[in-house]
Specification:
By secondary structure, the chain is mainly α. Helix content is about 70%, strand content about 0%.
């Protein structure tokens, strides 16, 4: 036998040995019966339902407490109702110096003005960073990103001094004017990422037709930014509606109170607190947040997915 034939026979023997070892090591596949699949699915759903109930338990407890008398709220910590006290909603609505609709209206003014300001100012700033070439563009973009990590507590004192000198304290201006100046860097970054995903060929085609930057922004870029604009709207609504700290600093008169400040007014450290009324009005104040998230979640998911933010 030649050397080539010997090598070929050795390779064949080695391959056959490896195949036999692999076949011996390969464990037989176990078939899963329909009953086992049903049990696994049932256990998984039970675990998910239990986790969901644990997460929403505080909300359920607040809803149940809004339907209990004040003296029974902390005496019965569970969520089983024995009596229904709808009077908490009536008393809570009229418990403060103004009907609760007055504070809802104040919050609506601040929220919708902030949304409009953020949509206009942040989208224009994002277009400038994403499409224009100007001096110090990269350092300015880096400085803008650094402001995301800056806590509001660091700048609140200089802001208060500035707005106090301008005579804006106890007005809505300190809560709205900074939005007009595009101070929410998170939304600028979100829109910059979105605009960068839009092909520049669209800009070039519009420029060939004689369009300038203003026309390109309003007629080409802005209509394509609906997911990013919807995400900005939802986040601005939630953050502004729930903002307690800034509104507490700049709004001093009960006539200017927003919903978070009005809810805080139900608690009296020196006297009796109206817990039932506070929980009832808390449920009412949560409804706008629930509705906007319910109807806008698909835009929120699409906006986050198309801007590269995980």
């Amino acid at each position: 036998m030649s050397r080539a034939d010997a090598a070929k026979s050795d390779a064949t023997a080695a391959l056959a040995g490896a195949s036999s070892i692999a076949s011996e090591d390969r464990a037989p596949m176990k078939s899963v019966s329909p009953a086992q699949r049903a049990v696994k699915a049932t256990v998984k759903h039970i675990v998910m339902i239990a986790a969901s109930l644990a997460m929403i338990y505080p909300l359920l407890w607040m809803l149940v407490s809004s339907l209990r008398p004040n003296e029974a709220i902390f005496r019965e910590p569970g969520i089983l109702l024995t009596t229904l006290e709808f009077n908490n909603y009536v008393q809570g609505w009229n418990a403060l110096s103004h009907p609760f609709s007055h504070f809802l209206w104040n919050s609506a003014i601040v929220v919708f003005a902030s949304i409009l300001a953020n949509l206009i100012a942040c989208s224009m700033a994002a277009y400038a960073f994403a499409r224009l070439d100007f001096k110090f563009k990269i350092p300015m973009f880096a400085a803008m990103l650094l402001t995301i990590m800056l806590p509001v507590h660091v700048v609140i004192i200089p802001q208060y001094i500035l707005f106090s000198n301008l005579g804006w304290v106890n007005t809505f201006l300190p809560l709205i004017v900074p939005k007009i100046l595009a101070t929410d860097s998170f939304f600028i970054f979100l829109m910059v990422q979105f605009i960068r995903g839009i092909p520049k060929d669209l800009d070039e085609a519009a420029r060939i037709d004689g369009a300038g930057h203003i026309r390109i922004f309003f007629q080409v870029i802005l209509p394509l930014m609906v997911p990013a604009l919807a995400t900005t709207t939802i986040f601005t609504f939630m953050w502004t509606w729930n903002d307690f700290f800034s509104q507490l600093i700049f709004l001093t008169s009960p006539d200017m109170y927003t919903v978070p400040l009005a809810l805080r007014a139900f608690i009296d450290s020196t006297g009796e607190s109206n817990w039932g009324g506070m929980f009832a009005m808390s449920i009412i104040s949560i409804l706008p947040l629930f509705l906007i998230f319910l109807f806008g979640q698909r835009f929120l998911i699409k906006g986050m997915a198309t801007t590269g933010i995980k």
